[in-house]
Amino acid sequence: MMTFEGLDENFKFIVFEVENQARSTQKFMDAPSRKRYAKITSRDDYIDNLKTIIENKCYSRIHSDQTLDKRQLNKIRAIQVICVNLEKIADYFVNIVKQMQYLDDQSFVQRYDYTEVFEIMLSRLGAILDAYHREDMSKALYICKAEPMLDDVYKVRFDRVMNEMGMGRDAQSLVTVLFIFRYFERVGDALLNIGEAIIFSLLGERIKIEQFEALQQTLSKSGFSDSFSDIDFSAIWGTRSGCRIGKVEQREAELTSEEKKQGSIYKEGNLEKIRKERESIQRWKQLFPDLVADIYGFHEDADKGSMLVEFLNGCTLDEVVLSGDDELIRNALFILENTVLETWTKTMVELPIKTNYMWQIQSRLEGVLQTHPEFWRAPKSLGGSEVRSTEALLSACADAEDELEAPFSVFIHGDFNINNVVYNHEAQQVHYIDLYRSRDFDYIQDASVFMVSNFRMPIFDSYHRQRINSVIKHFYGFIREFAQRHGDRTVQARLAFALARSFYTSTRFELNFKFAKEMYNRSMFLLERIDQYRGGTWEQFSLPEDVLYY
Description:
InterPro entries: EcKL, Kinase-like_dom_sf, PhoU, PhoU-like_sf, PhoU_dom. It comes from Pseudodesulfovibrio methanolicus. This is PhoU domain-containing protein. Belongs to the PhoU family. By secondary structure, the chain is an alpha+beta fold. It has helices at about 5-30, 35-65, 70-100, 115-125, 130-135, 135-145, 145-165, 170-200, 215-220, 255-260, 270-285, 315-325, 325-345, 355-370, 390-400, 445-455, 460-485, 490-505, 515-535; strands spanning about 230-235, 245-250, 265-270, 295-300, 305-310, 315, 380, 385, 410, 420-425, 430, 440. The strands form four sheets. The protein has a five-stranded antiparallel sheet with strand order 1-2-3-5-4, sandwiched between helices. It has a three-stranded antiparallel sheet with strand order 6-10-11. A two-stranded antiparallel ribbon has the order 7-8. The longest helix is centred in the first third of the chain and has 31 residues, at about 35-65. The two termini are about 30 Å apart.
C-alpha cells in the first residue's frame, strides 16, 4: 500500500466526516431538530477546510518532491479529485437539510422512502478508503455504480411527483421533495467522479484550482487591490475549527522591507464562528492591546464570514519547544507564564462558577468514536468486580462534577493549544491566535488544554520527549502556585476532570492507535479515580502527577 505522510491522515478524516454527514442528514430527515440542523451546517466548514488543506498538501508534494514517479504523482492527484468531490457531497447534504424548511409538513418527505438512497450512498462512501489504498478495481466500479442507481431512484420519484402535482395539491411540498431527490442524484454524479479517480489513478487527472471569491471581496473592502494579480495568497496552516486561514500580502516588488515583514492573515468560515472570533479579538484588544492581532477588514456573505487581520511575527510555541535551544525555551515560558498571570489576574471575577468538563466530553464523543470506535467500553465483570461502561462512568463523573465549582472565573483563551500561542523573541512577547472559544470560565480549562497539547505532540524520541515533559512540569508548577496564591483549594480535583476531558477528546485527532490509546487510558484512569473518590472532600483530592508525562 502506497502512503504519503500527512496526506493519508487528512484523507481518512475527510472520508469519515462526509460519512458522518450522510448519517446525520438521514437522522435529520427522520426527525428534524434545530440541534441536528446546526450540527450538519457547522461541520460543513470543517470539511471545506480539510479539502483545502489536502489540496495544498497535494500541490506542495507534486511540485517540491522531485523523486515522485508517475504512479505516485497520479495517486496524489487522485486524492485531490476524490476530496473535491467529497466536499461537494457534503455541500449537497447541507442543501438537503436547508430544503426541509420549505415543506408544509416536515414528515411529508418520508412518504417517498429515502432509506434506499442512504444505503447506496453510505455503502459507497464506506468503500472509498479500501478501494483507494488496496487499488481494488471491483470496489472502484462498485462506487461508480452508485450514479445509475441514484439516477433510477430520482427518475421514479420524479415521475411520481409529476403525477401527484397534476392533482393540484401540496405543490410547494412536492417541488421541495423533487429538489431533495435531485440533490441525491447529484451525490451519485460525485461518487462517479470518485470511482473514476480511483480507476484512472495510474493515468492521472487534471487538477482544478478553486478561486477564493470571499477573499477577493474582503480584500476589496479592506482597501487592497481588487485584482488577484497584485496579491500573494498562500495557505500557512490548517485548523480544526472549520475555518480557512491564509497569509495575504502585496507583491514583493511593491513593498518596503518593513512592509514585507507584515502582511495580513485572511480567515474565512462559518459566519457565526467568524463573528464570535471578531468579538473575542475586540474584547482581548480592549483588555490587552498588544496580545492579539488588529482586525483590518470584515465581510459577511449569507452564512459565511471572512476577516483580514494583522500577521503576527514570530513562531508558534511548539516550534520553540521542538527546535529552540534550552535558553530560548526557558525565556519563552517565562514570557508566556507572565502573560497568562497578567490576563488571569486582571480578568478575575471572584464569584464561583460551575464547570462542564464531562459535558464537553459527551458533546465530542461522536467524533472520538468515529475515529476510534474501540474507545467506548461496555460493562464488564471480572471475578466479583464490576467495571463500569464508558457511558455509566461519564454519567457518574458528571454527577460528581456537580458537587464542584471553580472559586472564580477569568477570561480564558478557550483553545489554549501550544500552537495557538505565537512567540516573538525580538519583541519579547507572546500573542494569542484562534480565539473563537474565548469566554469567562475556569482557568483550569486553559491549563489542561495547554498541557495536553504538549503531551499529544506525536514526537517520541527521548530527547524531544524530555523537553516536552519539562515544559508540562514547569507549567503545572505555575498552575499550582497560582492556585495557592488565590486560595483555590479544589484545583487538583478540577484539573483531573479537565485533563480527562482533554485526553479523551484529543484522541479524535490522532490516527496512531497506540498513542491515541495512551491518551484514552489516561482519561479512563482519571475518570475512575474521580468516581472512586465521590463522597470524599474535594479539597483533599490529589492529582497523580505522572499522568501528565509520556
